[in-house]
Amino acid sequence: MSVSLSGITCDDYDQSVYFSALDDYLSEAAFEESSCVDVSRRRAMGSRGGPNDKERRLDATTTVDIVTPLSMAKIYETDDCSIMCLITETMQAQVSSGNFTTTIIAYANARRRQLAGPGGDSDKATALRRLDASSGMGAASAESISEIGRAHV
Question: How far apart are the first and last CA of the chain?
Fold first, then answer.
């Protein structure tokens, strides 16, 4: 399964936050190591074909694609919906509604509070930046989901 997240880079990506959020909706699934790919997306801003056409500009959006192999027991499959269908339909509903974004942000904030404490550890500082609400996982927005290969059963 591949999920596109805007607002973060792969340096911001925190797999434990992401897997916690996924588990809220796919608790029957087991997740394997995910991979992150930075994707550059640009869209034209401004009017088209009108007097403001000269004011058109490109708006760059930072987006990553997270590919996560997962497995789920075949007992969840139905005659109408395969395991991949179940996973895709479940996650598409959560992405479309904004619930998945809300859940990612909640886990990022909880992890940040957990890590924030006394001490000046550089590894801790790096982890806190990854979870920062303005630039890390706390700024992530789930945009889309797609199937990649087959789900393991």
Answer: 14
- pLDDT given at position 58: 46
Residues 19 and 21: their CA atoms lie apart, in Å, by: 5
Q: Which residues contact 140 (CB under 8 A, 6 or more apart)?
A: 5, 6, 7, 8, 12, 101, 104, 105, 108
* Whole-angstrom distance, CA of residue 65 vs CA of residue 52: 34
Positions of E strands within the chain:
2-6, 29-31, 35-45, 57-67, 70-72, 141-146
How much is the pLDDT for 90? 92
Q: What pLDDT score was predicted for residue 18?
A: 94
In degrees, rounded to 5, the angle at the alpha carbon of residue 143 between the alpha carbons of residues 85 and 101 is 95
According to the model, what pLDDT value does residue 9 have?
Answer: 87
Q: Which regions of the chain are under pLDDT 70? A: 40-61, 116-135, 148-153
C-alpha 121/C-alpha 100 separation (Å) is 31
Phi, psi of 55 (to 5 degrees): -90, 0
Q: Please choose, from the candidates 20, 19, 60, the residue with its C-alpha nearest in 3D space to the C-alpha of residue 36.
A: 19
CA dist list (Å): 53 to 3, 42, 45, 61, 110: 34, 17, 10, 21, 45
The residues with which 36 forms a beta bridge, in sequence order, are 66
